[in-house]
C-alpha cells in the first residue's frame, strides 16, 4: 500500500476557492473579517494530520499482516488451549519499504520490518500461556529486518544490516501453495514444551530439541533460521537461476543457489544452501563450527492445483566435545488447490517429518547438552486452508502428532489442534 499525500485534491480545491474569492470585488468578498484566516487555519490543520513521506525522492510502501491462532495441546499428561501469535518470522508485523531510482539501472532503498509480539508461540509451554519471545516479555515490539540496499538490474543487489542471511528460510521460501502459514518444517506450536518421559534426574528435553539445531535456529528444519546483521549479495536471475552469499557478525557465512520457472504446466522451484558459524552463542563449541546443508523442491501442476514440497537438512559440528552425531532431517508436504467456492481456493494438505540422531537432552547437574545417538523424531499432520481473496485473508484448521524416540527413555507423544487466520494489508 503506497502512502501518498491524501490532502492533495482537497487542498487544491480549497486553494482554488480562496483564489476565486480573492478575485471578486471587495464588497462581494467581504463575508466577514475572519473568513480567510479561518479557511487558512483549516487548510493547515488538514495538512498537519496527513501521513507524509520523509522526502519526495524516496517512495514509501507500508505492508504487513495480522495473524492469530487458537492452539489446543495435549502433551500426554496435561492438555489446555492457548491463544497465541504465530511466532517470529510469521508474527503480526508492519513492514516499511522505500526505494529511490538513481539511474535507469541502479536504485537504492531500505526495509524496516517491525514485529508486534503478543504471545510468542515458540516460548509458550505447559506453565506459560503467554510466550515472551526474543524481547523477553509478551506484548512487545521487536526489529525483524532493518537494512539498506543498492540494486542493479544488471549486476544484482548488495544489502547491509539485519536481514535474512543466504541460508535463512531456504526450504520454507519455496512454498507457494498457500499453506505456508499453517504448516512448514519447524515445530513451532510445541517448541517450548517439555517432552514428557522418565528422564534421569536432572535431565530434560523440549520439543524444539527433539530434532535439534543445537541453538542455531528453529529446529527441526531451518537451522540458521533467524535474521542476523550481515552483508548480503544477491545475483540477478538468469534463465530462472540465481544465487546469494552472506557474511556477518564476524563468525558466520552462507551461500545459496536457486531456480524458479515452469516446465510445461508444472511450476518448479529449487534451492540448496550451505552455512557455517563458529559463534558459541549459537551452539558452536569454542574452536569449533556448526555446519548446515539444506535443499528443497516445490512442484505444482497449475491446471489441477496439485502440489508437493520436500526439504532435507544435514547438521554437523567440528571440535565436537560432546561427540554429538550428525543430524539428518527431511520433510514432505502435499495437497491440492481446489476452486470449491467463489471466495477463494480451498487447500487440503498432509505433511510428514522425520529425523535421525536428533534428540538433544539437557542435563542441569553437569550443565551440558548432548545429542543422543540412535534417537529419532517424527511428526505427521493434516489440515485445510481457506483463502478469502476479497480480504487478502487465509483461515486454517490443522492437526499434528509429534513423537520422539530416545534410547532408554519412555516418552509420550504430543498433539495439537490449531485454528488460525492471517489477514494481509
Structural class designation = mainly beta
| Strand order, largest beta sheet | 1-3-4-5-6-8-9-10-11-12-13-14-16-19-20-21
What is the string of SSEs from the N terminus onward?
HHHEEEEEEEEEEEEEEEEEEEEE
CATH architecture of the largest domain: Beta Barrel
The outline comes out as globular
Helix content: under 10%
Mean pLDDT: 89
What does it look like?
This protein is mainly β. It has two domains: 8-47; 59-424, Porin (Beta Barrel), CATH 2.40.160. The protein has three helices and 21 strands. Strands 1-3-4-5-6-8-9-10-11-12-13-14-16-19-20-21 form a 16-stranded antiparallel beta barrel. A three-stranded antiparallel beta sheet has the order 7-17-18, with no helix packed on it. The N and C termini lie close together (7 Å). Residues 1-33 have low confidence and may be disordered.
Task: Draw up the topology in text.
Elements: H1 8-23, H2 26-29, H3 35-48, E1 59-74, E2 79-84, E3 93-101, E4 106-117, E5 140-152, E6 156-163, E7 203-204, E8 228-234, E9 241-248, E10 252-263, E11 266-277, E12 290-301, E13 306-317, E14 327-336, E15 338-341, E16 344-356, E17 360-363, E18 368-371, E19 376-388, E20 393-405, E21 414-424
Antiparallel strand pairs: 1-2, 1-3, 1-21, 3-4, 4-5, 5-6, 6-8, 7-17, 8-9, 9-10, 10-11, 11-12, 12-13, 13-14, 14-16, 15-16, 16-19, 17-18, 19-20, 20-21
Give a short synopsis of this structure.
The protein is mainly beta and 425 residues long.
Key traits:
2 domains; 3 helices; 47% strand; Porin; 16-stranded antiparallel beta barrel; single chain; 21 strands; mainly beta; 425 residues; disordered N terminus; globular; three-stranded antiparallel sheet
Amino acid at each position: 500500500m503506497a502512502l501518498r499525500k491524501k490532502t492533495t485534491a482537497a487542498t487544491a480545491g480549497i486553494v482554488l476557492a480562496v483564489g476565486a474569492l480573492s478575485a471578486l470585488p471587495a464588497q462581494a468578498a467581504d463575508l466577514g473579517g475572519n473568513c480567510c484566516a479561518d479557511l487558512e487555519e483549516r487548510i493547515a490543520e488538514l495538512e498537519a494530520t496527513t501521513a507524509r513521506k520523509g522526502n519526495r525522492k524516496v517512495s514509501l510502501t507500508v505492508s504487513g499482516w495480522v495473524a492469530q491462532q487458537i492452539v489446543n495441546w495435549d502433551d500426554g499428561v496435561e492438555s489446555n488451549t492457548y491463544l497465541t501469535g504465530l511466532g517470529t518470522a510469521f508474527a503480526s508485523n508492519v513492514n516499511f519499504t522505500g526505494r529511490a531510482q538513481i539511474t535507469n539501472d541502479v536504485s537504492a532503498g531500505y526495509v524496516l520490518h517491525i514485529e508486534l509480539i503478543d504471545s510468542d508461540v515458540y516460548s509458550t509451554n505447559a506453565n506459560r500461556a503467554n510466550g515472551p519471545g526474543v524481547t523477553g516479555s509478551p506484548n512487545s515490539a521487536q526489529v525483524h529486518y532493518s537494512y539498506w540496499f543498492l540494486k542493479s538490474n544488471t549486476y544484482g543487489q548488495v544489502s547491509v544490516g539485519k536481514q535474512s542471511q543466504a541460508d535463512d528460510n531456504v526450504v520454507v521460501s519455496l512454498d507457494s501453495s498457500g499453506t505456508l502459514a499453517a504448516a512448514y518444517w519447524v515445530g513451532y506450536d510445541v517448541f517450548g514444551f517439555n517432552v514428557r518421559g522418565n528422564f534421569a534426574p536432572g535431565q530434560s528435553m523440549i520439543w524444539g530439541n527433539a530434532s535439534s539445531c543445537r541453538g542455531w535456529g528453529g529446529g527441526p528444519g531451518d537451522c540458521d533460521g533467524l535474521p542476523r546483521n550481515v552483508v548480503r549479495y544477491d545475483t540477478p536471475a538468469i534463465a530462472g537461476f540465481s544465487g546469494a552469499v552472506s557474511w556477518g557478525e564476524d563468525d558466520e557465512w552462507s551461500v545459496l543457489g536457486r531456480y524458479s520457472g515452469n516446465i510445461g504446466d508444472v511450476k518448479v522451484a529449487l534451492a540448496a544452501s550451505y552455512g557455517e558459524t563458529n559463534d558459541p552463542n549459537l551452539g558452536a563449541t569454542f574452536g569449533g563450527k556448526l555446519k548446515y546443508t539444506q535443499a528443497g523442491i516445490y512442484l505444482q501442476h497449475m491446471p489441477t492445483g496439485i502440489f508437493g514440497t520436500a526439504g532435507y537438512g544435514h547438521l554437523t559440528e567440528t571440535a565436537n566435545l560432546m561427540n554429538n552425531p550428525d543430524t539428518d532431517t527431511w520433510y514432505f508436504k502435499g495437497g491440492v488447490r481446489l476452486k470449491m467456492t467463489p471466495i477463494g481456493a480451498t487447500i487440503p494438505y498432509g505433511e510428514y517429518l522425520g529425523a535421525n540422531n536428533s534428540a538433544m537432552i539437557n542435563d542441569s547437574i553437569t550443565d551440558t547438552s548432548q545429542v543422543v545417538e540412535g534417537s529419532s523424531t517424527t511428526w505427521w499432520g493434516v489440515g485445510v486452508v481457506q483463502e478469502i481473496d476479497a480480504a487478502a485473508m487465509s483461515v486454517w484448521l490443522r492437526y499434528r502428532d509429534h513423537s520422539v524416540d530416545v534410547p532408554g527413555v519412555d516418552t509420550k507423544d504430543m498433539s495439537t489442534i490449531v485454528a488460525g487466520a492471517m489477514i494481509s494489508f
